[in-house]
Amino acid sequence: MKAPQPIAIVSLGAATPEDISIRAYGKLQKADEIYCLGEAAHRILAALPEGSALAQRCQILEIPMSSDRTEAISYYEQLATRLMEQQGRGLACSVVTIGDAGTYATVQYLADRLRQAGAKIEIVPGIPYYIAAAAAFGEGLVRQDESLLVLSKVFSSSQLREELSKGVTVVVMKLSRCADIVREVIAEDNYDFIYAEHLGNPDLELLTSDRDTFLSRQPIPYFSLIIIRPSRSISK
Q1: Where does this protein have coiled-coil stretches (predicted)?
Q2: Which CATH class is domain 7-127?
Q3: Which of 1, 11, 133, 142 is the most buried (most CB within 10 A)?
């Protein structure tokens, strides 16, 4: 029997197959079992070199998406049990997620369960979506003494304005949960922004800094984010 292999949690990065790391691709090539968390992860995997062969070893898992994580946690507990059983048989298993596994990724619940059970795991990082959005627009996020704040939700327009007044670049992930608040700030204040939804999906992707385009988006989808910052001079 093979020696137990670490269970790999593999980040695919921000939905562009060409941006996957060599380390992540190597883990997938060596995996006996691959679990894709959602159709988006499977689409990226299938587009990789030798993707059809990888896809044949892949099971697509649809994790319940809700602010109440009870159902998702129960699902991950069952998956953790299955992975540890396969690990005990010497199989190399990879769990694949879009974006970065350490940045607002539900797969962290799985990693917690595996660690608590004493299983050996390896987390392979990927490019977060907000990094990819800025790069796709040909811009950097921060420079020199500027600060970056990443939020999963904004609770009030005053909260957002307070951070921006300090010269902080603010990223709001999961934008659909606070879209009206962010719209208010964008409509009334003169801030530069980059808005992205379904980044990397050629059929659905939108990437814009046009105020009217953003303000007219209804509804804002779950897979969306916005980067907001005070106007920056070229020399800064």
Answers
A1: none
A2: alpha beta
A3: 11
